From TrEMBL:
Source organism (scientific name): Aspergillus bombycis
Keywords noted in UniProt: NAD, Oxidoreductase
Domain (3-hydroxyisobutyrate dehydrogenase-like NAD-binding) ranges: 178-298
UniProt xrefs under Pfam families: NAD_binding_11, NAD_binding_2
Stored PANTHER family: 6-PHOSPHOGLUCONATE DEHYDROGENASE NADP-BINDING DOMAIN-CONTAINING PROTEIN-RELATED, OXIDOREDUCTASE GLYR1-RELATED
Protein name in the entry: 3-hydroxyisobutyrate dehydrogenase
Domain 6-phosphogluconate dehydrogenase NADP-binding: start-end pairs: 7-168
Family: Belongs to the HIBADH-related family. NP60 subfamily.
Disordered as annotated region, ranges: 310-331
Amino acid sequence: MASEKPQIGWYGLGSMGRPMAENLQRHLANNHERPLIYSNRTLSSGETLKALGAVPAAEFTDLVKRCDIVFTMIPNDDVLQRLVKLAIAGSSELSNKIFVDCSTVHPDTIKKLSSDLAKHEAVLLSAPVFGGPSVAGTGGLVFAISGLESACLAVEKYITNVMGRKLINCGENASNASLLKIGGNIITISLMEAVGEAQVFAEKTGLGTEAMEQLITESFGAIAGGYSKRLTSGIYAPPLDTRPGFGISLAIKDAKHALSMGREHDFKLPGLELADKHMKAARDYGGECLDSSAMYGILRQQGNLSFWNENSRQGGEYGETKDTKDHAGAV
Ligand SMILES: NC(=O)c1ccc[n+]([C@@H]2O[C@H](COP(=O)([O-])OP(=O)(O)OC[C@H]3O[C@@H](n4cnc5c(N)ncnc54)[C@H](OP(=O)(O)O)[C@@H]3O)[C@@H](O)[C@H]2O)c1
């Protein structure tokens, strides 16, 4: 297992990874521990992290070599598989290293990679998170964690009250935390669909989205209120040169994992199926630069409104031409 003051590493500085890594680096600096070593496909995304005292590593394999505990926050299963393959193929001794994946991936991926790493006496923990980039910035994420108990104990001091406000321990079966995350996202995605429908209702009936947003926030809580704000502020379809808060393809990947488990275990997720269909239609229409809540654009189209609202970007890669078409058959 890692030494008492392990060297911590971080790979993945996207919407979630960067604020999480920054909180971790602040914690390490405040506690006079060795600075975080970080890497990312686009290394320049680490400039603010570097300004906090963290140290860049050009390659993932170099990061692995220099660190006892390596956090990853990357988009999907393929990227995680590739990173673990690189770590195993790299020249460094993996024995006693702990890999902590905070991304949302399929439980089978965790199971397989955990077994691959165990052959090299390394441990993989699954530690996915609940909450978006703004919550990550405040250190208020909810984490789930699973895997070897001693490894969980070694990393939890870098999570609780550092990057997250709550850590749910799902036990020694490494894939359990991933299972919880996929299950939790059934609620996240379905809630976005419900909030989108309520806001189309408010606009089409003349009630207005402001009153509806107040109700959603006061009555259904800050998370539902936040989803409503993504719609009314227009960030469901952000400017093309920005990174969406929770990219639509990430949410489609999460829905795919949940739906595949439904098929595998013989149960149905009809609400999620509908939201998935709307997310895919939104991506077909507006491209990749959309937030997961962009099913709202399709719900708008089904009510003969434009995909774009007054605060979103207007058109985009595909939108300008398609917006002039009859929207009835969009889904
Ligand atoms: N956003 C949310 O609200 C949210 C909430 C909970 C969980 N999650 C999950 O957390 C994970 C990260 O989400 P995110 O929103 O931070 O994603 P993101 O903004 O798209 O960032 C993805 C990160 O992975 C890197 N990356 C992408 N493709 C890669 C590749 N082929 N090889 C190596 N690195 C690659 C990106 O590098 P570049 O900087 O070079 O692009 C970036 O650092 C996902 O699994 C997501 O489902 C997201």
